[in-house]
Amino acid sequence: MAGSADGARELLFAAKGMRKSFGPVRALYDVDLSIYRGEITGLIGENGSGKSTLSSIIAGMLRPDSGEMSLLGRSHAPATMTEGARLGVGMVVQEMGTVPGIGVAENIFLGEEGRFRRFGLIGRKRMIEAAREALRAIGSDIESAAPIDGLDMQDRKLVELAKVMYGDPSLLIVDETTTALSHHGREMLYAVMRRMALEGKAVLFISHDLPELFALCDTLTVLRDGEYVATTPKDEMSERRIKHLMVGRQTGDHYYRGDFDGRFGEEVVLRASEVTTGTGLLENFSLALHRGEILGIGGLSHCGMHELGRALFGEERLMTGTVQHVATGRAVSSPIAAMGLGIGYVSKNRDVEALVLAASIKDNIAAAALDRIASPSGLIWPRGEKAYVEAQIKALDIKCASMHQGVQYLSGGNKQKVVFGKWIGRGCDILVLDCPTRGIDVGVKAAMYDLMYRMKREGRSIVLISEELTELIGMSDRLLVLKDGHLAGEFPRGQGLTETAIIETMI
Amino acid sequence: MEDTLNHDEPGRTPDGAPKKRRRPSAAALGELAPLLGLLLISTLFLVLTEGRIFGPINLRSLTNQELITALVAAGAVFVFGAGAFDMSMSGSLCLTAIIGAKVAMATGSIAAMVVACVAVSLLIGIVKGLLAAYVEVPFFIVTIVIGVFLGALGLLAMGKETVLTISALPRIRDMTPINLGSLASVFLGGLVLFNLTSLGKSCKLVGGNERAARQSGIDVRRTKLLAFLVSALTVSIAAIVILLRTKTASALTGGTVGTDIMVALVLGGMPLSGGPRSRIGAALVGAATITVLNSGLAIMGAGPGVIQGFRGITFIAVVFVASLSYRTRLLPR
After folding, report:
1. Contact residues, A window 361-400, toward B, CB-based 8 Å cutoff
2. Which range marks the domain in which residue A228 is found?
3. Is the ipTM of this structure higher than 0.90?
């Protein structure tokens, strides 16, 4: 285990025998973790391996069932995140950690407004000034007097980082934050992390992005199914080895499709003509999706590709143009119309738009198939419903205690499988996938890619919208690059297709 | 499979620990909590009132009270389940009963009265349903206004009278078959509609996450409209039962049913925000609990003010406990 290798390393944090269960689901089982001063410790594992549970416990958001922790030589058992912060743990969470409806400065000093009190009133000016300092300290120039709602996801994450760093933590936990950040935002975060290490503090870094982990971390700890697997020092990290440790079996080198045959059918199945969305992010955009085609759509975050996905499913109000299902000649004017025409849609915002979190796996999968599982009398019998859901759980290998389990308890990858299950069960001929592998581990990703490729070969058509270039290059038959709501470039599938060529058309 | 994998790993030996620990008893207890609550309150008042609460005379009054709350609450499960917070139930019931009484006084026909009640209530339901589907204002605010408006309409319809007395109707000797019949049909119908049809399932999904429901091909507006129609139907049945039993209607008819059903649903184990945890059984169990509570306090000599206050405290306590378990269950992943 880590620590024994180098006697000079000074232990900053240690956890021993951590256990935590949520009802029937065992999230952590006897996990040990050591974090040393001046180091960035990576934590990796498939979704549901217990990374977030462990970090939440360290930060005080959750309490362990058993196990002991120590921080800076003292026993560490925070009951709340506030107490955790006071003891020296700062965490930037995976989800949005800012409060809407108030300003940037108010967010940074949430709960600590008292510092700026004078004669019983809060000195807003001083608070804004202090917030500006806090933001500058992480290298950001976000206006601290602005309302938080005007900020995009990335800037909100940075505000959160500034808030955490203002508390001067000894241990900074970064939990899958980078997916929300652009290149620039990531650099800012990396700089903060490196500075922490230089100052003799420590960072616990959770990410799915292997190159990122390799570049930053001094050691990498792998969890699987809630158990400790191994800790790898920097010089032993390799993609192959880590993936092997995570999955517990050898993974193939190619997890995208292996062929470079970008052929697809002649027949156009879905056509968007001169589409302008109400948000104005997409302007007079046209595309044709063919039978058996995986059509990749890429671009920067505000290029209009997400709106395009919604428009293809009838979820976006159109100012001009139409989306037409070619075989029937019918317009795709609403999700109901789209589903009637065999179109399915996987939203980028899984938890907000694609799942009813409080509902069970069964209810979520059946939600998109109420018309299919109803008996001729119009009644939906439990037996038919269960059989339908069971088939999807099997087909997609959704890991769950039972189909009655709430989806909110599932890991990201399994949640996404539930969303896929909604559409696979309907036998959709056209699937619009918006960032379908976002925040999902390699195992599930590989399964998704495999599924897409299988669907293509069955003659179904897929629109794959993605922020990951490697994924677009790896999977698409044809790749469209959007910029400011217009088509900026089109690339056929081929061995010579590189990221640089695509990035040039994006910017 | 798992074991062999573990053998492959350096420094890792398989332990015999079970993969998943099941605690079905805790979940089952949560499901049974509303029933246990009812049992607890019943026992408590049985002791406190020295058995009088379940004496022959009070039992009848209990059934009558519980019936109205339960009927209205059963329909309300659809509305609240779909995430629409309706605070105008009292107003709906009141206006329906007043118009029904007017028609009965004018025609002397039970059939005409029934038709009038159903028609008026459905009309109110359509208006509420359309507003819920199309108005982009927090809906409970709309329903507060509607409630006041319906009450005003009721007063207008009463004209100079304070109590409408229907003397023209034939006398019904025993209300029991009507009571039981209406309750049984509403609950059986409710159970089937809520659990075995796409309407019921849609209600729960819409209440749980409207956007996700829409993206799953559920017609959110239609679902809300139908939910209000179902609710209107049970309101009209409640109005008919009241008119048949009391032969009177006034501006006070309906009374506290609007708040009673909300307390009942919560006591019955359903969140007022609706969603997947909504259930028809909550209406029956909750209505029984709130009725025993009201009646028990009254028998013990508590005035209306004390009863009202006590109900308020119970309501807050239940909401607090419910939100506690909700929060702890929402957080972990």
Report:
1. 363, 366-368, 370-371, 374, 378-381
2. 11-88+169-247
3. no
Is pLDDT of A114 > 70?
yes
Shortest distance between the Cα of B312 and any Cα of chain A, in A, equals 27
Same domain, A130 and A24: no
Q: Cβ B9–A52 below 8 Å, yes or no?
A: no
Q: Pick from A200, A242, A184, A231: which is nearest to A442 by CA?
A: A242
Helix (H) or strand (E) holding A423: helix A412-426
Q: According to the model, what pLDDT value does residue A202 have?
A: 95
Scanning B183-202 for CB atoms below 8 A from A yields 192, 196-198, 201-202
Residues of chain B with confidence (pLDDT) below 50: 1-24, 326-333
Nearest to A315 among B6, B215, B219 (CB): B215
Instruction: Return the pLDDT at A9.
Output: 87
Q: Which CATH class is domain B36-330?
A: mainly alpha
Q: Tell me if chain A has a CB within 8 Å of the CB of B22.
A: yes
Residue A205 three-state SS = strand
Higher-confidence residue: B148 or A5?
A: B148
Report in angstroms the alpha-carbon separations of A8 from A38, A232, A409, B295. 12, 18, 41, 75
Q: How far apart are CA A420 and CA A415, in angstroms?
A: 9
How many structural domains are present in chain A? 4
| pTM, rounded to two decimals | 0.73
Confidence band, pLDDT 50/70/90 cuts, at residue A379: very high
CA distance A202 to chain B (A): 25
Helix (H) or strand (E) holding A266: none
Q: Are B90 and B233 in contact (CB under 8 A)?
A: no
Is A381 in Cβ contact with B196 (below 8 Å)?
yes
